[in-house]
Write a structure and sequence with these properties.
9 helices; globular; Rossmann fold; seven-stranded mixed beta sheet; alpha/beta
Length: 245
């Protein structure tokens, strides 16, 4: 875990995403109240949290279990002048300690997979007010029959990865009405995530050249980047926006 967090330390984001995509998803939440209460699950260093704070007049509770990410979020919010809108809490997504029907919207960019897409949606549902929204990103297959190289990789790294159509069925089965979905642009993978991560991998290879376990983690991280470079037409992160029925 130490090498994992060293690899990810101070990256702009902890997964694919960008502010235009956050705003695009937020625009689909047509009936948010003027001052919504939003829960951001697995907020990481909080780039999307700050963007939500910029774009709404409500309050955001942002949770993560890695305290350095939460400290980065606080610094970022202070610098952007939105710290009064954000409460950062060290809390596991597996133990969400909130009353039922508390939130107008629940947000999660690049983190819902930790719970599992279906389990995450079902966990969020009772925490939402009637008519509340969920907006999450999930890596998804975009085309059938992907090449064996990339299929083998994701079968090992995320075996529950599904197609967009399969995920939309899960959304409906979990008690939501689909509002919309869209594929994040490839730039959302590179600019704030893969490009700085690739630079970090090269640096850490020198530092950990005699550490087999660290080298293996770096190899897997580099392979993930290389596969996206080759096969980005076959899979991507999809923003799913839905409303409690």
């Amino acid at each position: 875990m130490d090498i994992f967090f060293e690899l990810h330390q101070d990256l702009p984001r902890e997964g694919p995403g960008d502010n235009p995509s956050t705003r695009k998803a937020l625009a689909l939440l047509a009936n948010l109240p003027p001052q919504p209460l939003i829960l951001d699950i697995g907020c990481g260093p909080g780039m999307q949290t700050v963007e939500l704070a910029r774009c709404t007049n409500g309050k955001i509770i942002a949770i993560d279990t890695h305290q350095p990410f939460l400290e980065k979020l606080k610094q970022r919010a202070q610098g952007e002048g939105v710290s009064d809108k954000i409460t950062a809490i060290n809390m596991s997504m597996f133990a969400l300690d909130f009353e039922a029907r508390s939130f107008d919207a629940i947000w999660s960019e690049g983190a819902i997979y930790i719970m599992g897409f279906e389990h995450g949606l079902r966990t969020c549902q009772p925490l939402l007010k009637p008519g509340g929204y969920v907006a999450v990103t999930e890596v998804s297959w975009l085309r059938p029959q992907p090449p064996s190289e990339v299929q083998t990789f994701w079968a090992a790294e995320y075996p529950s990865m599904r197609t967009v159509e399969e995920n939309l069925e899960i959304v409906r089965a979990a008690g939501y009405r689909e509002i919309g979905h869209f594929v994040l642009p490839s730039s959302a993978w590179w600019e704030g995530y893969y490009t700085p991560q690739e630079t970090r991998i090269a640096m850490l290879r020198t530092k950990y050249r005699d550490d087999m376990e660290a080298t293996q983690l770096l190899d897997v991280s580099q392979l993930e980047i290389d596969l996206y470079r080759k096969y980005s037409d076959w899979y991507g992160y999809v923003f799913y926006v839905a409303q409690v029925i």
